[in-house]
Specification:
By secondary structure, this protein is of the alpha/beta class. Helix content is 41%, strand content 17%. The protein has a single domain, classed as 2-Layer Sandwich (Nucleotidyltransferase, domain 5).
């Protein structure tokens, strides 16, 4: 199983995807800023929450591969720090589970799923493109509308990882032992 993650500190999307690119479960982890403590203490608390929930999902679904969107730096230093911390937690989770860690460039998976997408993703089109991979039991209907984009990103990352991993377009991040999906899966 693949745990796909759209990493962020406030809203972290995740999806569990089979090697045949079928979404089994999905969700969004949200954390709230606690202004009563220092920024670094708050970030550590929020990363612990995200890490714990992702670990529970990974164990519950027998995950052996974690695929996450690569770090991007379009925001200010606070945004960069938050995403980098989330990525660190994902890397540690993969290492502690001896899971393969895949890093996917945003534009690579986006263009694979929506080849004619521009700079911004049309999430209605993304949802329509992913519809055949997502049974109603996966839970997209239970995600708040304001958080759907994060779940959709994670779903697309997971479907892309399952379908295209063997094409060499995905970077295996350092620090996690390598493993492979079974030959012929994801096609």
């Amino acid at each position: 199983m693949i745990l796909a993650v759209d990493p962020a500190l406030a809203t972290c999307g995740w999806a569990v995807v089979t090697p045949l690119a079928r979404v089994k479960a999905l969700g969004v982890i949200t954390t709230e800023l606690d202004k009563r403590v220092s920024r670094s203490t708050d970030r550590a608390r929020r990363i612990r929450l995200i890490s714990g929930e992702l670990l529970d999902v990974a164990i519950d679904h027998g995950v052996s591969v974690i695929a996450a969107e690569s770090l991007s730096f379009p925001r200010g230093s606070d945004g960069i720090a938050a995403i980098a911390l989330c990525w660190g937690a994902i890397a540690m989770l993969a290492a502690s589970m001896s899971a393969t860690l895949l890093e996917l460039e945003p534009k690579v998976w986006q263009r694979a799923v929506l080849p004619d997408s521009g700079k911004k993703i049309d999430y209605d089109r993304l949802e329509a493109a992913l519809e055949r991979f997502v049974p109603s039991s996966a839970g997209l209907d239970r995600v708040k509308p304001s958080l759907r984009n994060h779940a959709l990103d994670a779903m697309a990352i997971g479907v892309y990882a399952a379908a295209y991993r063997d094409r060499g377009e995905i970077v295996i991040a350092e620090g996690a032992p390598s493993a492979t999906l079974e030959a012929g899966h994801g096609r």
